[in-house]
């Protein structure tokens, strides 16, 4: 399953601020996993499903809504 940047309204891009869970860590559905910043506001993105966090974009990376931030693989 893909962890994507949700639609945040008028926002064109966000910057990955920090990961609350690290690469290879288990996450639960609905758990906060990453903070992103847009227009000086910080948003927390939650995991859409339980699994293992993989292929996370590094902090400082800019992404657009709908783009993949990481993969959540079945445990």
Distance between the termini: 12 Å
Tell me how many strands there are.
Answer: 8
Domain count, please report it. 1
Shape: globular
How would you summarize this macromolecular structure in one to three sentences?
This protein has about 80 residues and is an all-beta fold.
List the helices and strands and how they pair.
Blueprint: E1 2-4, E2 14-19, E3 26-27, E4 32-38, E5 41-46, E6 51-54, E7 62-63, E8 68-73
Antiparallel strand pairs: 1-8, 2-4, 2-7, 3-6, 4-5, 6-8
Protein model, in words:
With 75 residues, the chain is mainly β. It is globular. It contains no helices and 8 strands. The mean pLDDT is 95. The chain has a 4-stranded antiparallel sheet, with no helix packed on it. Strands 5-4-2-7 form a 4-stranded antiparallel sheet, with no helix packed on it. The chain has strands at residues 2-4, 14-19, 26-27, 32-38, 41-46, 51-54, 62-63, 68-73. The protein has one domain: OB fold (Dihydrolipoamide Acetyltransferase, E2P) (Beta Barrel), CATH 2.40.50.
Keywords:
single chain, about 80 residues, mainly beta, OB fold (Dihydrolipoamide Acetyltransferase, E2P), four-stranded antiparallel sheet, 8 strands, globular
